[in-house]
Amino acid sequence: GERYEVWRTNPYAESADELRDRVKGVSAKPFMETQPTMDALHCDIGNATEFYKLFQDEIGEMHLRTAAPPPTREERRCWRATLDKQLRKKLKLKPV
Question: Where are its TM segments located (predicted)?
Fold first, then answer.
């Protein structure tokens, strides 16, 4: 989770490349294998997919704090879709 924090907050105001270096070990490979048409430039998304889980856990914890029932699979899917949309907009990728 520590690397995720670094990735998310970018405390050192690093460039994307430096950041990617810092969070190395969070691999884009699984993502690249499912999306062979992606080139290395879009590794960020590979990184991001690795962090979906963490985002979801965090959102899930917020749910717990408000004593709400745990998020359903539908909710999770909704968050994932939202994240995906934001990412694609940020990286100017065509939507799936």
Answer: none
